[in-house]
């Protein structure tokens, strides 16, 4: 694999399993960790551009910790990059994920108690106890209705995408606090248990099969150069887009015409998931 986005190798170290890595690089097996902050930018280089984001509790493999930066690879999609080392925490046994658009962890099982953390959809936590309105977790008390056990998945990616309606557009974003087009599709598919890469070009190349032209069905994916949207029904789609600077619902025909008129070209693929 030569795509640097999913290549666990930098100028000093390479993952031990990589074949044909340069001989002068240190070969490392990596150590397990989890994201320990609500949202961490996954950067192309230390202090560099954001490629993607990781949310609390996501598992990662760390290959280098140097100068306050950790070079790592995300378990969810294989994306490699840098995060501040301080944003990581030791591995823990996650039992539940945040299935609501967002939630808070509270200091007690009382919604009037001080909140301790704000968490995005997709965050992973360890439930320690509780059977009432709140579950006690490693971060505090979280409303039980906002959590689902790991391995329990909704069946409708479009319904998951709807949870993000109004979320601000953020290039490279992967959370309820800010998200981009491919981040929205990835969040929707991963929530439903469907593996999904991080960027729209990867998604176009790797997801689904070509669908009949004009036959739009709920859950289909529409691709443009550098953009992706999720079909809600025969007439509408949902996407995170810079036109609205938010996640929005738009008529399919209007979106196709608008995107082409603004110079971003025609639809490049219409894919249907199995």
Automatic annotation (TrEMBL):
Instruction: Cite the NlpC/P60 domain residue spans from the record.
Output: 151-274
Which InterPro entries does UniProt cross-reference here?
Answer: NLP_P60_dom, Papain-like_cys_pep_sf, PG_Endopeptidase_C40, SH3_16
Q: Which UniProt keywords apply?
A: Hydrolase, Protease, Thiol protease
Superkingdom classification of source: Bacteria
Q: Give the similarity note.
A: Belongs to the peptidase C40 family.
Q: What is this protein called?
A: C40 family peptidase
């Amino acid at each position: 694999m030569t795509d640097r986005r999913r290549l666990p190798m930098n100028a000093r170290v390479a993952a031990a399993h990589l074949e044909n890595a340069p001989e002068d690089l240190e070969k490392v097996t990596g150590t397990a960790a989890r994201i320990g902050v609500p949202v961490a930018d996954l950067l192309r280089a230390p202090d560099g551009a954001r490629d993607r984001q990781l949310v609390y509790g996501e598992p990662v493999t760390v290959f280098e910790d140097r100068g306050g930066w950790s070079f790592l690879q995300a378990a969810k999609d294989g994306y490699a990059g840098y995060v501040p080392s301080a944003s990581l925490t030791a591995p823990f046994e996650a039992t539940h994920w945040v299935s609501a658009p967002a939630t808070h962890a509270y200091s007690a099982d009382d919604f009037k108690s001080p909140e301790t953390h704000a968490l995005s959809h997709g965050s992973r936590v360890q439930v320690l106890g509780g059977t009432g309105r709140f579950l006690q977790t490693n971060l505090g008390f979280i409303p039980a209705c906002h959590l689902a056990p790991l391995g329990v998945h909704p069946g409708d990616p479009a319904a998951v995408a709807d949870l993000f309606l109004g979320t601000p557009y953020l290039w490279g974003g992967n959370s309820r606090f800010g998200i981009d087009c491919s981040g929205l599709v990835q969040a929707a598919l991963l929530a439903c248990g469907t593996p999904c890469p991080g960027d729209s070009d990867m998604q176009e190349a790797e997801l689904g099969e070509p669908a009949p032209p004009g036959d739009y069905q709920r859950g289909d994916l529409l691709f443009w150069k550098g953009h992706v949207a999720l079909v809600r029904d025969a007439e509408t789609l949902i996407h995170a887009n810079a036109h609205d600077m938010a996640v929005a619902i738009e008529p399919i025909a209007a979106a196709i015409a608008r995107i082409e008129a603004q110079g971003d070209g025609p639809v490049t693929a219409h894919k249907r998931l199995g």
